[in-house]
Amino acid sequence: MLEIIKTADGSNTIYNAEVGENYHSKHGALQESQHVFVNSGLKYFLSPTGGDLEGACISILEVGFGTGLNFLLSAELCAEKGIELNYTGIEAYPLSAQMISQTGYSQYLKPETWNSFIEKYPDSLKAGISIGTQCKLQIAHCKLHDFASAKHYDIIYFDAFAAAYQPEMWDEAAIAHTIGFLKPGGVFVTYAITGNLKRALKSLGCKVEKAPGAPGKREMLRAIKIL
């Protein structure tokens, strides 16, 4: 059973009764997506380049596509900066377009971005689709362990349900499989930070750092793939 609920910043999220968890933080769905993934992931990756980013091309892999909020915010930032975005989401249990429409996220986005996404979302579960002129989206309808790709990505958004609810998404095998798709110099970000996660990432050749967390969390984790 899925239920729309309001979070502390006024934005909505979805509660999944079967899992027993929200798709976003109860302290603020919009704030969490913006802080953890867009600011601490995408903007962090772009910051060393500086200057004019027009014509740049980046790729993002998201583990746990969910409502699409992380994608939508990232797509709009890239469009504003003239950056070409290739975005792949992994989602074992895709939401319906109707359910996503009920989140009310349209109010935070340009109408053309939102309308194009909602219209083409079902097709993105089968093949790559275009959102605007510089953004491509494809959602892999599979479990993380079954995801395979010859591509390597600049940034990984790891947005699975918490380990208390989906421990198999956070074990060493899952993290190793995920990091295998990250380019050297690429950025991995997630809202969580645990000793096991830090040790797993370090063993995979990543430099791990703590970053300030979104509201409700003191810290989050960011890792840079060195090897």
TrEMBL record:
GO terms for biological process: methylation. InterPro entries: MnmC-like_methylTransf, SAM-dependent_MTases_sf, tRNA_MNMC2. The keyword Nucleotidyltransferase does not apply. It comes from the Bacteria. Keywords: Methyltransferase, Transferase. One of its GO terms (molecular function) is tRNA (5-methylaminomethyl-2-thiouridylate)(34)-methyltransferase activity. NCBIfam families: tRNA_MNMC2. This is tRNA U34 5-methylaminomethyl-2-thiouridine-forming methyltransferase MnmC. It comes from Mucilaginibacter gotjawali.
